[in-house]
Write a structure and sequence with these properties.
2 domains; Nucleotidyltransferase, domain 5; MULE transposase domain-containing protein; 7 strands; single chain; alpha/beta
């Protein structure tokens, strides 16, 4: 970490506040070119977590969190910061985002996440003085809807598997129209159909 810092990187390696007794740690790093991009592009970012990235010193699971954005020149995704932690709670995320804010002047207006209450809590605790718009990723939102539709919705009196599948498909199509509604009026029209 010292070698990276010596070449202009921003680094963090500390016990995670709130998880010191459990051996929780937060390891984060941002290169000089990433720090420059944070100043230019960090108004809207995506926060992604990759589970079981590697094993820690005690063979525990390690999670990689990446803050990324869309490069306005190439249109491609570009990583802005990385954080590794051995606990999947809001504590390391909060520690990382507060550090990123202080160290790299990270002040996003909106952050896209999966449908994670843990991430939303970490974001809100990191920016208590600002209203960060939390946007749910379309793919993750649809995945959560699919899971809940198929596991929680039942059709009383429908015995045939094919009939149930057709009703579920109709419901999914109706939800898709809600998700793609371009205006409040369109949304209301599709909502009334449901």
């Amino acid at each position: 970490m010292e070698r990276l810092r010596g070449t202009g990187w921003s680094t963090l390696y500390e016990p995670t506040p709130g998880e010191e007794g459990c051996g929780g740690y937060t390891l984060a790093f941002v290169s000089p070119w990433q720090k420059k991009l944070i100043g230019e592009y960090a108004d809207t970012v995506c926060l992604d977590s990759t589970h079981n990235t590697c094993k820690g010193m005690d063979k525990e699971k390690v999670f990689l969190n990446t803050v990324l954005t869309q490069d306005r020149v190439t249109g491609k995704g570009v990583p802005l910061a990385f954080m590794l932690t051995n606990y999947e709670s809001h504590c390391p995320l909060e520690h990382f985002l507060k550090w990123l804010r202080q160290e790299c002047s990270f002040e996003p207006e909106s952050i896209m996440i999966d449908c994670s209450d843990t991430k939303a809590l970490g974001i809100n605790k990191s920016f208590p003085d600002r209203a960060i718009m939390i946007i749910y990723c379309y793919w993750h939102l649809w995945q959560a809807w699919e899971k809940n539709i198929t596991s929680k919705i039942t059709f009383k009196g429908v015995r045939r598997k094919e009939a149930r599948a057709e009703l579920l498909k109709d419901l999914q199509d109706a939800l898709g129209r809600l998700l793609h509604a371009g205006t409040a009026e369109d949304f209301e029209t599709h909502w009334e159909f449901m």
